[in-house]
């Protein structure tokens, strides 16, 4: 794909983010766009945010659970960048009108104490490099109209990342079975989704290893101090102003968020 077109598409997505508008799917307008092209579009979109003063604080893995794959019709993982402007803390309110078409996912976040860079990173390497894990929400959002996305669309759109919310408890990953820990997601006091750690590519540490190896092939490390979101453990839950959500993961703790 022509570099000028990649820049234009990245700029379009950035403008859609700023103006809180949606775009027609890139794959409809440019059917020949490849995943590699889409990641270059993502890099342009992120570059615009960095130019505006934000900084990268971590990475996210998307489309790791079968439930999300089936909802979106996308059947392979992807990744995106987390910026400081996306971060909310436990219990904070999020203004719903700062997002476009948000959906909530309950996830396990990894906080790294050492760099990880592929190739050859294993799940054991991930655990050894992890300071702790936290319960978190990722509030995914799409700049693509009506979530009508193929994998190239979500990749270009920074893996459909909106914002994320971290719990207030950091747990040693060796003190909890990350594969079997159960997740319960409540919306306005009712259970709307359940899952387990194994939903994320069989094990959350597998998902982080996949990310380290995939980024390693691009010469990009996962850095000490970064937050890595390991993927949704259940289906996405639509949210709007007035909603109150809480997610609890066995052995790790809870995280809550409200939309105003």
Automatic annotation (TrEMBL):
<dbReference type="InterPro" id="IPR036663">
    <property type="entry name" value="Fumarylacetoacetase_C_sf"/>
</dbReference>
<dbReference type="InterPro" id="IPR017632">
    <property type="entry name" value="2-oxopent-4-enoate_hydratase"/>
</dbReference>
<dbReference type="InterPro" id="IPR011234">
    <property type="entry name" value="Fumarylacetoacetase-like_C"/>
</dbReference>
<keyword id="KW-0456">Lyase</keyword>
<dbReference type="InterPro" id="IPR050772">
    <property type="entry name" value="Hydratase-Decarb/MhpD_sf"/>
</dbReference>
<dbReference type="Pfam" id="PF01557">
    <property type="entry name" value="FAA_hydrolase"/>
</dbReference>
<dbReference type="GO" id="GO:0008684">
    <property type="term" value="F:2-oxopent-4-enoate hydratase activity"/>
</dbReference>
<protein>
    <submittedName>
        <fullName>2-oxopent-4-enoate hydratase</fullName>
        <ecNumber>4.2.1.80</ecNumber>
    </submittedName>
</protein>
<feature type="domain" description="Fumarylacetoacetase-like C-terminal">
    <location>
        <begin position="101"/>
        <end position="258"/>
    </location>
</feature>
